[in-house]
Amino acid sequence: QVQLVESGGGLVQAGGSLRLSCAASGRTGSTYPMGWFRQAPGKERQFVAAIYWGGSSTYYADSVKGRFTISRDNAKNTAALQMNSLKPEDTAVYYCATHASGNVYSHLSWNYWGQGTQVTVSS
């Protein structure tokens, strides 16, 4: 079993920044990818970013490329998502996930999820 706890969400103006953190416990380790997804009201859960192994491989949705950066600290079992140049369309509940198999761009491929943290970007 794995437990994930997100933190760092909040309200920010467009153009601002936020840093989300995800603390993992249980059956974790650097061999498992970690990812971030988001879900806006009435929409499907959407891939944001993922990071593999020691952080050498990272993947981003086109909508966040160049603005968001995913990172991980294997010693502390944590992952982070630095979000810069935020836009109102980034408003969503952001979820941390781990233990993926298959297509990591699909939320169906990830086995463990956090409870989510709300990010609201005002215009």
Structure description:
The chain is mostly beta strands and 123 residues long. Helices cover 0% and strands 54% of the residues. It contains no helices and 11 strands. Strands 2, 4, 5, 6, 9, 10 and 11 form a 7-stranded mixed sheet that branches. A 4-stranded antiparallel sheet has the order 1-3-8-7, with no helix packed on it. A hairpin with a 4-residue loop joins strand 7 and strand 8. The protein is globular. The chain starts with a strand and ends with a strand.
Biggest beta sheet attributes = 7 strands, mixed
The helix tally amounts to 0
Low-confidence stretches: none
User: Any idea what the radius of gyration is?
Assistant: 13 Å
Question: Could you give the count of β-strands?
Answer: 11
Proportion in helices: under 10%
Q: What string gives the helices and strands in order? A: EEEEEEEEEEE
The 3D shape can be described as: globular
- By secondary-structure content and strand pairing, the structural class works out as mainly beta
Terminal Cα span: 40 Å
Mean pLDDT: 93
Strand content: over 45%
